Amino acid sequence: MPHRSVPVRALFVATILTGSFLLFLVQPMVARMALPRLGGAPAVWNSAMLIYQALLLGGYAYAHALGRWRPRVQAAVHIGLLLAAALWLPIGLIAIDPPADAEPALWVPWLLVLSIGPLFFVVSAQAPLVQRWFALAEPGRDPYALYAASNLGSFAGLLAYPLLVEPAMALSGQSRMWSIGYALLAVLVLACATRLPVARAQEEASPMVTPAPGWRRVLLWIALAAVPSGLVLATSTFITTDIMAMPLLWVLPLGLYLLSFIVAFATRRGVSDALTRIAPITLLLFGGVIMGSYPQRPYFNVIIALLLLFMVSVALHTALYRARPGVDRLTGFYLWMAVGGALGGAFSGLLAPVLFDWTYEYPLLILAAAMLIPQQFLTAWLRDAWRRHHRAMLLGLAIMIGLLLDLRLVGGADALGGNRDGLALLAIAALGLATIGARIGFVLLLSGALVMFGGYRALSLSLERDARMRSYFGVYTVRDGDGYRELAHGSTIHGIQLRGSDARERMPTTYYAPRSGVGRAMRAAPALYGPAARIGVVGLGTGTLACYAQPGQDWRFYEIDPVMVRLARDTGQFSYLRLCRPNPVIRIGDARLRLMAEASASLDLLALDAFSSDAVPAHLLTREAFATYGRVLASRGLLMIHISNRFVDLEPVVAAAARDGGWTIRKLHYVPSDLDRMDQATGSDWLALSRDPGVIGALERQGGDWTRAIAPPGLAAWTDDDSSVLPFIRRF
Asked: What is the pTM of this model?
């Protein structure tokens, strides 16, 4: 009856919102639970990503297969699965630890499937299944609009976890909250099931059976879903690597990606159609410019990259909406969308770090978007010109692009004057107005813009042997300056070495200069612990700290990224290890797990240098982590923690842990003199901790302006169960 329409729709919308909200809370919550136990190595999180994708695809396939049965049978089966999966509540990791020789690629999937597999599987089926049920309960109404509600729930879950849930609740509370949400979801699903028709009514009211889609159409669905999915990960990598490394920045690309679904699948088509019409212009203008990643305008660049992602995602998802099948093919449509999303994510998240030494997936996906994005000629005259003189127009366009490349990159740069970027952009814009609608010409022009504004520089650096390397942790670039060589990890400097004589190359620089906190501690080690001091360093970098090593000392490095080990030890680009500590002991893997395997009281001094980038490994700063450091260090041991960070204030976090663990703590804020800066010393903040106050006193007598580090009253130390970086992000 008509008066029941709104309540029925509201019920189905609420069910989809709840399921999607819970689904987007699971992944970061379980990651927090797993980090202390499994560590942060790439093999762990790549395996976790594959399991999430496999379970999601499995849920969509299950929803599709269930559609073959009568509605009430579907409801009975699904409610039965919901009840069976409830046996895994409250959600969390099962209480088993990996064997010492466990292979992450095998152990992590096994652990996650046993811990959350049934819950994740059954919740992931909600969006397509409930939309199909809505079509059966409300014949004649478009169920695709409910997909916008699904992504609204995902969007809410994405923002809620880092901004509300994680700062306000410990993991135990989060688990209970999620379990209550799951119970609510089960009730809502049961309510939806009561709205389903019986078999005979269903047969009479079911939508007309439409022909099965051909493979060309299915491939189009996959491609339209894959490009935005890959682009959201590529954008996150690109802006944190080449523009600005800032905590929680990944939330913005993923949030805009989900928002694009809400716009593209909305019932009212005005906004999505308008954005889709102007998306080609945005892609052409911003796609090339963003490749420049000009460091002097980081915030502007981030805005441009995010706007580009949003416009492309809206346009491609709108094309996906326009290509949707009839209601009877709904679950199959979403299944192929999920396949495309998984392929795009796997390309950017798993394959690209192995295949490329830079974020080449970003321009490649921009070009893929250009091949798929809906376009129409701006005027009838341009349409007729391209159709009648297609080859001549392409030839003329290629000549113009070649001239621009020559003027911009080769011999004619001076002819453009000081504002050559602006003039080149104007030329690209003018040509773009003539090519929108002519897809081959459009892609050709965009390719020229990508090369012109940054691709040429990226390619030339890739051709230099070992000038750049990449791993799952990011892109490492080696650059030569005036009398020095530096290693940059995205936009963060990870080491500088002076060039010239052996004496110059042995000189510690940057955050590790002799008058820095760690420099003073390393120079004091012989006096504190004798000639056979045992020293550990978490974070190898270029190996700078090795040049404080003295004969007779026992040194160990802990490094999570094998590519960093290769740069510091094997390529010959940095000689700190070769000159100062040949054949060093390097433990590769997550530092906390590696330290847990060390013998008690086996170190005198431990330096932690893992917190200068955007991704702060919180599991290295919890109360449990400090208990591990205290066990590994001797009773008079000294713990040095590097907290220099542009975005996160870690001093109160460490001070709270020191207070709870009975450590004496001091801070040294080092500001290099002009003379020190000539030797590439940079400002730094180091904290010194020891459970023996006499050690801290002896360190203070070595010199330096050491000050007390005090945790604010009421600030609790981070624990494995309760930690959030959000309250400690610096305000600008």
From this structure: 0.85
Contact predicate 225/344, CB 8 Å: yes
State the average pLDDT for the chain. 86
- C-alpha distances in angstroms, 533 versus 320, 536, 548, 672, 699? 64, 10, 12, 28, 15
Q: Picking from 216-225, 326-335, 531-540, which range would have the lowest pLDDT averaged per residue? A: 326-335
Residue 291 burial by Cβ neighbours in a 10 Å radius (0-12, 13-18, 19+) = buried
Res 3 pLDDT > 80: no
d(CA 275, CA 260): 10
Q: Give the integer Cα–Cα distance in Å for 44 and 27.
A: 14
The dihedral built from the CA positions of residue 181, 183, 184 and 188, taken in this order, carries a sign that is positive
Structure tokens at 729: 């992000």
Read off the pLDDT of residues 637-691 as tens digits, 9 standing for 90 and up: 999 999 988 788 899 999 999 999 999 999 999 999 988 888 889 999 999 999 9
Which one is predicted more confidently, 325 or 432? 325
Phi-psi region of 373 (alpha: psi -120 to 50; beta: other; left: phi over 0): beta
Structure tokens belonging to residue 595: 């330290």
Q: What are phi and psi of 575, to 5 degrees?
A: -110, 10
DSSP tag of 681: B
Query: Which helix (H) or strand (E) covers residue 191, if one does?
Result: helix 171-194
DSSP track, 374-423: ----SSHHHHHHHHHSHHHHHHHHHHHHHHHHHHHHSTTGGGG-TTHHHH
Query: Is residue 167 within 8 Å of 726, Cβ to Cβ?
Result: yes
> What is the structure's pLDDT at 187?
95
Instruction: Name residue 536's beta-bridge partners.
Output: 556, 606
Residue that is written with structure tokens 């104007």 in the block: 426
Could you tell me if 482 and 499 are in contact, meaning their C-beta atoms sit under 8 angstroms apart?
no
Query: Residue 28 is inside which H or E element, if any?
Result: helix 5-38
- Which two three-digit tokens encode residue 23? 């689904």
Going by C-alpha positions, the residue among 476, 632, 642, 613 that lies closest to residue 545 is 642
Is omega for the bond preceding 90 within 30 degrees of 0, making it cis? yes
Q: What is the mean pLDDT of residues 623-650?
A: 93
Residue 612 near residue 647 (C-beta atoms within 8 A)? no
Measured distance CA(415)–CA(700) in Å, rounded: 60
Cβ 526 vs Cβ 574: under 8 Å? no
338 vs 29, 260, 285, 344, 435, CA distance in Å? Answer: 22, 16, 30, 10, 33
Amino acid letter, residue 358: W
Structure tokens at 87: 């046996």
pLDDT in tens, 370-412: 999 998 888 888 888 888 888 888 898 888 888 887 776 665 4
The per-residue pLDDT for range 349-365, each reduced to its tens digit, is 888 888 888 888 889 99
User: Of the ranges 43-47, 240-244, 394-398, 664-668, which one carries the lowest mean pLDDT score?
Assistant: 240-244
Residue 9: both structure tokens together: 């729709």
- Residue 197 backbone zone (phi > 0: left; psi -120 to 50: alpha; other: beta): beta
Bridge-based pairing state of the strands 633-642 and 603-608: parallel
Give long-range contacts, CB 8 A cutoff, 24+ apart: 176-183.
Answer: 176/90, 178/22, 178/25, 178/26, 178/29, 178/90, 178/91, 179/89, 179/90, 179/91, 181/18, 181/21, 181/22, 181/25, 182/22, 182/86, 182/89, 182/91, 182/119, 182/123, 183/86
